[in-house]
Amino acid sequence: MAEMKLMTIDSSETWKILLSQTEGRDKLYRTLQYACKLVRGVDAGSSSLSKKSLALEQILGNARQVLRLAKWVNIWSKRMGQRSFGLKGQNSIGATLQLLNDLGNFLYFAFDNYALICKTILDGRDANAYQLRGKRFFLLAVIAGFLDSLWKLRNVRKQLSLVYERETSARLETSSSDKIDTGNTSHELQTLHKQQQEAILGIVRYGFDIVVGISISRKEQLSPTLTGFCGVISSLVAWYQVWPRKPVTTV
């Protein structure tokens, strides 16, 4: 009973932490928004369910647009806080892709925020045009994110290969009577496997988001079924990435 109670407390605390964050609420709204789009695609027509799904999808879309207000400031602050853009050296490809990802998101948020101002304060005639421009920069951001994740996965696998080769060489050079200290290697492998998992999650998330980006950046979007499905999958992966986790302690 004590274990069950502890699990319940941990679960409720996790949700409380997640939903207290703007990013966590946005991921929840996005999942529901694209789930509504998926329902509209599956239940095509003028049925009551399709109409309700469209209404809820629009409400969630508007709520997310409000949550995105001034998010470009976070990207600006991050870039200004760095001493350099990091485009020199061995990791220049990765740094360039990260810069393109930040640039795409920055312009996406900036145009999206201005579109919201047009709709709420100004006459609203240019709102859709600015929002469409922003979505095209969103597409740039997710393509750069996808390529950056592929690049990270390539580098991590190269490092893993080197670690395994080093460990094999150490075992061959050490006599069977000697003990090998594998503590540092084990910690290094654990870190690299975690980085590999993050890179794979990034590939999956951005891969599905590329389809979403292509759809929403067009005047005539792709089918609601395809866009909704890809949006739900990418949202669930993003949801997993921001899910609060307790630090693992080893004894």
TrEMBL record:
Name this protein carries in UniProt: Peroxisomal biogenesis factor 11
Lineage: superkingdom: Eukaryota
Subcellular location: Peroxisome membrane
Pfam families: PEX11
Keyword Membrane: yes
One of the protein's GO biological processes: peroxisome fission
Gene Ontology annotations for the cellular component aspect, listed alphabetically: peroxisomal membrane
Main location: membrane
Keywords: Membrane, Peroxisome, Peroxisome biogenesis
InterPro entries documented for this protein: PEX11 (IPR008733)
Organism (species): Galdieria partita
UniProt entry tagged with the keyword Membrane: yes
